[in-house]
Amino acid sequence: MKIATYNINGINGRLDILLRWLKEAQPDIVCLQELKSENSKFPEKAINDAGYQAIWHGQKSWNGVAILSKAEIKELRNDLPGEDEEFTHSRYTEAFINGIVIGCIYLPNGNPWPGPKFDFKLRWFKRLAHHAKDLVDRDLPVILIGDYNVMPTELDTYKPEKYLENALFRPESRKAFKDLIDQGWTDAIRTLYPDERVYTFWDYLRDAYGRNAGLRLDYFLLNKKISGRLIAGNVDKEVRGWKGASDHAPVWIELADENETALVQKERKITKSKATGSNKENVKAEPKGLLQLLSELPEIPVPDAIKPMKATLVDEPFDQPGWMYEIKWDGYRAVAILNEGQATLTSRNNLIFEQFQPINDLLESWEMNVVLDGEIVALNEQGTADFGALQNWRNKKNALLAFYVFDILWYNGRDLTGLPLRSRREILDAVLPKDSNLIRPSQVFEVGGIEFFEAAKRMGLEGIIAKRADSLYTSDARSREWLKVKAKRRQEVVIAGFTKNEGTGKYFSALAIGVHDQKGVLRYIGKVGTGFNDGRQKEMIKLFEPLITNESPFDVEPDVDEPSQFRPRRLGAKATWLKPLLVCEVEFAEITSDGKVRQASFKGMRTDKDPKDVVMEIEADTAEMVSNSHLKVDAILAEANLKTKRKSRKSSGLNTNQEPADLLITSKNETEQVKVDGHSLKLTHLNKLYWPEDKVTKRDMFNYYHQVAPFMVPYLKDRPMSLNRFPGGIHGESFYQKNVRDKAPEWAETMPHTNGEGVDKDYLLGNNEATLLWMASLGCIEMNPWFSRVTSPDNPDYCIIDLDPDKQHFDQVIQAAQEVKKVLDAIDVPSYPKTSGSTGMHIYIPLGAKYTYDQSQLFANIIVQLVQQQIPDFTTLERIISNRKGKMYLDFLQNRPGATIAGVYSLRPKPGATVSMPLTWDEVKSGLTMRHFTIYNAIDRIRETGDLFTGVLGEGIDLAKTIQKAKSIFN
Q1: What digits encode the pLDDT tens for the residues 62-112?
Q2: At CB < 8 A and 24+ separation, what contacts does 559-565 make?
Q3: Coiled-coil segments, which residues (predicted)?
């Protein structure tokens, strides 16, 4: 559930901006402040038309608050308890929505200070605190949302010294807010961004927004009943930049489903007993045939002193087929070695972790022989990794220890590092127990990298890791095949000293930090003075005392009290130098032009890192890294991988009547002569890039069609083909060719055809693999067969509903597909979905060649009309594109003689080298994208699923009975 707050600062004058944001952001609930609208002038109709119910209270030219909701609203109160004779504006309304009490707040501004308005602000705050105390311990979830006109800490303003006399930053206001929080409320945004300057307001003066001269004034306070459901939150800052926008920007949070959260909490409670007790009965049994699968791999003793494979830092996320994505966990990298009942956890520098004994205990209870690579983390109540809590996880009430495993290097005497990552993950999934919260598989996401990165940022994660699906494991190497993208700028640094400012009562004021250059010289990069409380400082000073030295460890002794543009005055800081033996991790805003970190915050000590290895991590260019990583699978490796996977599939009990073929072309030659189905084919221009952005060549296309032919040819056999040729690749000129008279090889079978103008033509029949590859040699990237066969050209084997979106998100295509299925299920009609490989979806209905194209089209028309009635807001039956007004076309007219669409398993001439892939209906759900199925993963998927489309060529429905049933149900 997405809940937002927005100080609109005049709803009628900014209604267009509000409606635009509602359409783009799609929040479920919205609290609005500063309506400046009389009750009778509130734009109820426009809000309703946007899909929201509303309650509101306001006065002309004054404040006013409102709550909008997609679900039913039950108003509970329209003011706080108690009364005040002054400034009686509408500032509070309360409602019950989706089982949650929502309080919408506009707390008085209070300026100028001192004065009667500020006094009133404190009185109003007192009324709010009294009411909040009554709500905080309720058994119902409660959220108090809105503009509090308070900046609780210095992090909440860009310039604290400017606001010292401002009512928003006065100590009285800040204390009132703190007292409110201390009742037991969770400040959602600060919880998600504990050390960041997150602004929600920028005034209209001197381009404050452009300079990011902002304040945080808008808050979500959650009671204990709902705080555990907090998943993500952020500010839609760009709205502040829209022309004519309010001085505030919308702020939102996302809550997990209530039942899902309860399950997570239940699992946390049982983690300890699973970690310490015997878990032998829960170990996943070795799958049948696994030993045979591994039998061809090298046999070696259990490795020791393993240094894990490293990822290269790059500057931005990317979308690229053939890559898998994982969360970048904020913890300690660890290799777990388990052999003959003994388990050892080691750091990336082979230091033994002795402080995580529960993980060792659980590993040893499994009685496995395995080497695992992963990350040890401490999870907070929101389920995200808290690096600070990991330092002392035993003493943290809400810290849940977890070892996320993302790779397997050795198993039962076999070396797995020479297998591609995808194969290693399959083995890991087969052998790793799944019922422990202490040791968990780190989930792999095969989605768009940019989309995944944005999701990681919204959830407050450290970043993402991108891994080539075919990458081998190279120990202790900084690989181009594993790339990391950081959502937060983090850096390991050497602690070389600490400073104390004049008059401070703290153990120290800041740490003097550095990194080594390429020659091993320690260079000063600035100070870090935030991120540690008194308790942490006391712990750290004990570490520092034995390391105190009189000499600076830096190449040049720095001026630790040096002024900067951000701190123009000296603080009287004095340095105490330390031997450079300690490492910590810091988060920072940027590196200045003189090589210093700015706005650095301490995140925790790094006992797993050798200080000599600490260097400045520089972001590499993403495009260069990706282009140099050679996504194509090496031919020899791919051949070995195919054999291994074929054995795996046979041992798993899947249908083995059909198997993808081996690679057709393994050489790097520009031209090859091959023999297929007894026919000789000359394949040319093999190194030509047909998909330039994806580095996919014409050779790759031939290899794909050769491998997929056992599955694809049954859907081409005896069908006339329309040849859509792209001889220059996907960005070159293309043209259609239907007549192959005097052009096709002698052995190719054709169908004579006379068109409506009396011209005689020969249509190619897709009868075998040789014909398929000959079409590919002409530059036919996609294969377009008729719906009917040469033996019954007027009777299609299937009816197709083609969902053709315009500006819709693919989730809306999925919604339309699900509506089609609902209609077909209601009349007992089987259906088979597949991605188009472009932007839409195709849904096939078997007819068994028993009906004409006209009858098929009539039936499709009935179906799409019923569907369009259910989702008229974004679908249309209008054939002319200009008349569709941006809506999704429910195309039934494809069901006509001679029409074609991209066939099943066909490649598409689109960036990403996507494939038109059959699906199960269980897969047709939110989150599915076109890039799920590409030239890189299609063969592996088919090997796992078999052919999901066989029912399309089945007996077919009884059309007369089906239409009769539809009339009885839908009329």
Answers
A1: 799 999 999 999 999 999 988 887 878 889 999 999 989 999 999 999 988
A2: 560/497, 560/499, 560/510, 560/512, 560/527, 561/499, 564/592, 564/596
A3: none
